[in-house]
Design a protein that fits this description.
The structure holds two protein chains of two kinds. By secondary structure, chain A is mostly helical. Helices cover 72% and strands 2% of the residues of chain A. Chain A is globular and about 65 Å long. Chain A has a two-stranded antiparallel ribbon. Chain A has a domain of 214 residues. In chain A, helix 3 runs antiparallel to helix 10 and helix 5 packs across helix 6. Chain B has three domains: 240 residues, Rossmann fold (3-Layer(aba) Sandwich), CATH 3.40.50.300; 188 residues, Rossmann fold, CATH 3.40.50; 76 residues, no CATH class. In chain B, 33% of the residues lie in helices and 25% in strands. Chain B has 18 helices and 23 strands. In chain B, strands 13, 16, 19, 20, 21, 22 and 23 form a seven-stranded mixed β-sheet that branches. Chain B has a six-stranded mixed β-sheet with strand order 6-7-8-3-9-10, with helices on both faces. The longest helix of chain B has 16 residues. The relative contact order of chain B is 0.11. The chains are: A mainly alpha, B alpha/beta. The interface between A and B is medium-sized, with 25 and 34 residues. Bound molecules: adenosine-5'-triphosphate (ATP) and magnesium ion. Chain A: Keywords: Cell membrane, Membrane, Transmembrane, Transmembrane helix.
Chain lengths: 349, 520
């Protein structure tokens, strides 16, 4: 038995593989659920009802999926061009703190329709700026951006905790380190009344569509793919390598920064150091689950959010540990990697 | 004869077939190899040579057929089993680690991972003994990355021998070698055959096939088209067998050159702190081909990089269409209608994982034909690629298929097509026929001659004497980064060019002057 590279990837397989991967992950997670002493099928049902069974649950799942879509896009865009942005978490926080600073400042006298896009832009720019540092180090000194972008996450989070315990600290928060809230009229309109679901979801889906079109139809998309696949060949064909990577960086960092901005303006209204339960890192998983396809990111983010929210419900209802959700998401990443592998290779006897 | 047939062949491929989707790469091929034999495998680009050798070595599983070594069937698709049975392979694109030493490279993959004691001393002894036995001198402690291409290939061969190969397969071993290195390689191969090893090599160069091989198998369209003893055939017949019809390289007709379109004076190019080109002078004229001949590694790469817009001169002057320029830049070159055929098609000429149409348009993607306001016009790109495929006879792919799947020669035709299709004013061609079959070489030469006839100024950088003599109107030799004065093609013969390439003129005497004044 051995592996052989597939030269033709049947479409059926490409579509089917993520689905099979998820099924396989659930099956393996079933073993854990059974070991925890709960009936497996019922537990699966509880995951679904936990995530979508009530209006509250469904809106909560979608609310969680929103930042995951954006950080997932951030990773997908960068990885396509072989730019390893592992720093979405830091870019998320920097975008968030930027919005908290500006949205609570004198600027907040501006009317909402002006201010909201402005804050989106500010958050995105903060994210971009943070990712430009590793890119510069890579282009100038050939420093591996995996390490630098990852380490900058810690720098960013420490910077945020300094700000929310210092200049941006909310004096009315009973001494808790949290930032001042953004002005009332910068909060994003709700999609559904009396829920946390806000129009950020629409923004994220539109962003995914735009990124898809950008990659599939534009000169920038073609050039960034060329730069990722064969830098030397790209340069020979006149692709401006540095400029292309700068654009990719801005797009990737910007999306992650936007995720932070939207989370503040849509859900919390202020920044704390637990604003993100690891959305930046989970975005990498989402992107891999989506096989770096921007449209796939929408589905992958929904799946990941479903698992996280649904497993909460399941564990409460059946008395089994919530970490089973984490395990399932992790398993689905592994099975997805295996599935991607088999869309590229086949087993021959 | 009866005696020979009773002997079990060392290697026997029987009824091998292999399909890739709709493409039949190998179709019921049977070949056998005897002890001490040197067999050449010939065939057009895409005939299925590499595929057949990959099956033999276990990289691919055949759809049908068997491989026998000493009469014992090899399990399919297991390189390790092939190695254990004594099959060694030297790939065209080497598979060694540049940051390890020669000895380390040879040893990797042979040492059991759990062994605590490293067998370095024993390995060194074995390596040196093999090197001695076959006259393959290398320094075991040299870093591989510091070696020349020819030396690296020697290490590949040593590695196969170190694994006790009795059957050695070499896929286009001479494509990247200089003539001298190639001669040395073949004397080594002959020596190995004399000592009882059996060898198969793939080549497109009929001269060396005729000179070195005992027996020649010709593949065409995935089938065995013919089998000949080297002593019973000739180059013309082989070329005809490969392509299916007579092949003659087109002849250059005398022409009157036009205006000077590019001129370089006292140009110096440095990289990595070393002067790669030293105060070179040359010019290109409309409707004329300037051939740069030289042994590889004498500055050709820098010259082609400079002219492709990838390197800047450190000193000297350049004039493009009469205007002084300080540096050439890829974008400007493409816009100005300057075609570029790079030396290395896999690294520079194409992006393997992208579609054929994407490679066809990538360098011109900003032009209104292929994109507007940053939006790519896919239909136009695909149509353009389809035209190239049609006109330049690129076989084995559609505009949407991945470029990597093209055989080497067909990839080169694609690159040639995207450059020549738009009638460039200047064409920079580096080793344009490296790795191409005779038929394809003739086709490429015809295209270059046609472009010249229509007024293109051609700069041809090549190591192939016949090619330069056949195509160029004026010839300059490159040696140690310096360019000789040009001579007219009429005055060129292999012996004289050989002298020029040796760089004798760099010390003064010889071929100065003439040819510059020539304008027949
Ligand atoms: N992995 C693959 N998938 C699909 N098609 C392939 C694959 N490998 C080779 N082919 C096709 O099979 C045919 C034979 O290819 P092969 O590489 O064996 O040719 P070759 O004789 O070595 O040519 P060249 O002289 O140009 O190296 C070509 O049409 C090629 O496009
Ligand atoms: Mg080949």
């Amino acid at each position: 038995m051995r592996l052989e590279r597939r030269e033709h990837r049947p479409l059926v397989l490409v579509v089917l593989s993520p689905i099979l991967a998820v099924v396989a992950a659930l099956a393996i997670a079933g073993i854990l659920i059974a070991a925890a002493g709960a009936p497996v099928l019922e537990a699966y049902g509880r995951i679904l009802t936990g995530a979508f069974g009530t209006r509250l649950a469904a809106t909560e799942t979608l609310t969680r999926a929103t930042p995951l879509m954006l950080t997932g896009l951030a990773a997908a865009v960068a990885f396509r061009a072989r730019l390893w942005n592992i720093g979405a978490e830091g870019q998320f926080y920097l975008g968030a703190i930027m919005v908290a600073a500006l949205g609570s400042s004198v600027l907040s006298s501006l009317p909402g329709p002006v201010l909201i896009p402005l804050l989106f832009a500010a958050g995105a720019i903060a994210g971009m700026a943070l990712m430009l540092v590793p890119l510069w180090l890579r282009l100038r000194f050939s420093v591996d951006e995996v390490v630098t972008s990852l380490l900058l996450n810690f720098v960013a989070v420490l910077f945020v905790s300094m700000m929310i315990d210092g200049p941006l600290k909310d004096p009315l928060a009973f001494g808790w380190p949290q930032s001042m809230p953004v002005a009332e009229h910068t909060l994003l309109p709700k999609l559904i009344e009396r829920s946390r679901l806000h129009i950020g979801l629409v923004v994220a889906i539109v962003a995914a569509l735009l990124v898809y079109l950008l990659q599939a139809r534009t000169v920038f998309g073609l050039q960034s793919r060329a730069a990722g696949l064969n830098p030397e060949g790209a340069v020979f064909a006149g692709v401006p390598l540095g400029r292309t990577l700068v654009k990719v960086t801005c797009l990737s960092g910007g999306l992650a920064g936007l995720a932070g901005a939207i989370e503040v303006m849509g859900v919390k209204s202020y920044v704390t150091t637990d604003l993100s339960p690891g959305y930046g890192y989970a975005g990498i998983i989402v992107a891999m689950l989506a096989n770096l396809n921007p449209l796939g990111v929408i589905a992958a983010a929904l799946f990941t959010a479903t698992m996280f929210v649904g497993a909460d419900g399941m564990s409460r209802a059946m008395g089994i540990p919530t970490y089973i959700a984490d395990v399932t998401v992790a398993l689905s990443l592994l099975t997805m990697l295996v599935a991607i592998f088999f869309t590229q290779y086949r087993i021959r006897r | 004869m009866t005696n020979e047939t009773r002997v079990i062949p060392v290697l026997e491929l029987s009824h091998i077939s292999k399909r890739f989707g709709p493409i039949v790469a190998n179709d019921d091929i049977s070949i056998s190899l005897r002890r001490g034999e040197l067999l050449a495998l010939l065939g057009e680009n895409g005939a299925g040579k590499t595929t057949l050798m990959s099956i033999l070595f276990g990289h691919y599983t055949p759809d049908e057929g068997t491989v026998r070594v000493d009469g014992v069937e090899l399990p399919q698709g297991r390189p390790r089993a092939a190695i254990q049975a004594g099959v060694g392979m030297v790939h065209q694109h080497f598979s060694l680690a540049p940051n390890l030493t020669v000895l380390e490279n040879v040893m990797t993959g042979t040492e059991p991972l759990w062994s605590l004691r490293s067998g370095t001393a024993a390995a060194r002894r074995k390596l040196l003994a093999i090197a001695e036995r076959f006259g393959l001198a290398v320094d075991p402690d040299a870093r591989l990355g510091d070696l020349s291409v020819g030396e690296q290939q020697r290490v590949e061969i040593l590695k196969a021998l170190y694994n006790d190969a009795r059957i050695l397969i070499l896929d286009e071993p001479t494509a990247v070698l200089t003539n001298i290195e190639a001669e040395r390689l073949f004397s080594t191969l002959r020596e190995m055959a004399r000592q009882g090893l059996s060898l198969i090599f793939i080549s497109h160069k009929l001269d060396e096939v005729m000179a070195a091989a005992d027996r020649i198998v010709v593949l065409r369209g995935g089938e065995v088209a013919a089998e000949r003893k080297a002593s019973e055939t000739n180059k013309a017949e082989l070329a005809e067998l490969m392509v299916g019809h007579r092949v003659t390289r087109p002849k250059r007709e005398a022409a009157t050159p036009g205006e000077i379109v590019f001129e370089a004076s006292r140009l110096t190019v440095s990289s990595g702190g070393i002067e790669r080109l030293k105060e070179i002078d040359f010019f290109l004229r409309e409707g004329e081909t300037l051939g740069i001949i030289g042994v590889s590694g004498n500055g050709q790469a820098s010259l082609s990089q400079l002219m492709s817009g990838l390197a800047k001169p450190a000193a000297g002057e350049m004039r493009l269409f009469g205007e002084p320029v300080t540096a050439l830049d890829v974008h400007d070159l493409v816009e100005a209608g300057i075609g570029r055929i790079p030396e290395d098609r896999h690294k520079q000429g194409a992006i393997g994982e992208m579609a054929i149409w994407e490679n066809a348009v990538l360098e011109r993607i900003r032009q209104p034909l292929f994109s507007r306001r940053g939006i790519v016009n896919r239909a136009a790109g695909q149509a353009f690629a389809a035209t190239i495929i049609e006109e330049f006879d690129v076989r084995g792919g559609t505009p949407a298929s991945r470029t990597r799947l093209l055989s080497g020669g067909n990839m080169q035709k694609l690159i040639l097509g995207r450059n020549l299709y738009r009638r460039p004013r200047i064409l920079i061609a580096s080793q344009p026929t490296r790795g191409l079959d005779e038929g394809a070489v003739a086709a490429v030469h015809a295209r270059i001659l046609e472009a010249r006839k229509q007024g293109t100024a051609v700069l041809l950088i090549s190591e192939d004497l016949d090619e330069v003599i056949g195509l160029a109107d004026r010839i300059q030799a490159i040696a140690k980064g310096r360019l000789s004065a040009p001579i007219a093609a009429e005055h060129a013969d292999p012996r004289r060019l050989g002298l020029m390439m040796s760089g004798d003129w760099t010390s003064g005497d010889g071929v100065s002057g003439e040819g510059n004044s020539h304008a027949s």
